[in-house]
Backbone:
C-alpha cells in the first residue's frame, strides 16, 4: 500500500499544478484522484478485514473517503473556468 500512496501523492501534485493553471484536463485528473482516494482506503480496509476481522473503524474509513466526492460537485459547477 505504501507504493500506491506514493504514486497517489505524485498524481495529486500533478493534479494540483493543472488545477492551478486552469488546464482543460485538470478536471479529469481531479476525478481520477477522487476515485483513487476512495479505492485505496477501501482496498486497505478490505485487506485488513480479511486478515484481522471486521472492525468498525474500517467501515468509517470507507465512508469518510467517499465524502471526498463533494469536491466533484464543487468543481463540476466551475467546469467553464478550465479552458487553458
Residues:
Amino acid at each position: 500500500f505504501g507504493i500506491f500512496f506514493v504514486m497517489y501523492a505524485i498524481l495529486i501534485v500533478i493534479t494540483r499544478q493543472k488545477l492551478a493553471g486552469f488546464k482543460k484536463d485538470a478536471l479529469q485528473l481531479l476525478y481520477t484522484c477522487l476515485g483513487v482516494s476512495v479505492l485505496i482506503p477501501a482496498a486497505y480496509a478490505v485487506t485488513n478485514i480479511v486478515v484481522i476481522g471486521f472492525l468498525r473503524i474500517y467501515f468509517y474509513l470507507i465512508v469518510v473517503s467517499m465524502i471526498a466526492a463533494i469536491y466533484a460537485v464543487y468543481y463540476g459547477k466551475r467546469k467553464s473556468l478550465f479552458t487553458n
The longest helix spans residues 26-51.
